[in-house]
Design goal:
The chain is mainly alpha-helical. It has helices at 7-21, 33-61, 63-86, 91-106, 110-117.
Length: 120
């Protein structure tokens, strides 16, 4: 396996993990998507806790802290993939949406949008 995973590979790995644990875990259906999202938020909280408790420089310089930080980010990805799988979002769909959004953002004038939001 390469060290630069494609979305389809991550989703396949997550599906395999769910298959292995499907007798203990919630079904891979849309009504349980919000649960995966909540678990993802919890993992994001763990990422935030590392940033708050250890700080930027430790994440960049201390191998143990960095390892923990990256592992928590990986957990976020895993639950994100659960959400995609539960709602039947394909790798092609999310890739197309991501590229479209990126293109829009590349052409967006963030300063103008911010200025328009200001209340005088």
């Amino acid at each position: 396996m390469e060290n630069d995973l494609k979305i389809s590979e991550m989703m396949s790995m997550q599906r395999k993990l769910w298959e292995k644990n499907k007798d203990k875990w919630k079904p891979m259906t849309p009504e349980f998507g919000k649960i995966s999202l909540l678990w993802m938020f919890e993992e994001i909280g763990e990422v935030i806790a590392i940033i708050k408790k250890k700080g930027d420089s430790k994440i960049m310089e201390d191998p143990e802290v960095r390892k923990a930080f990256v592992e928590e980010l990986s957990d976020v990805y895993m639950y994100y993939n659960d959400v995609l799988l539960r709602f039947g979002v394909t790798p092609e769909e999310i890739s197309k949406a991501y590229i479209t959004k990126h293109d829009e953002d590349m052409n967006r004038d963030y300063q103008k949008k911010y200025d328009e939001m200001k209340f005088n």
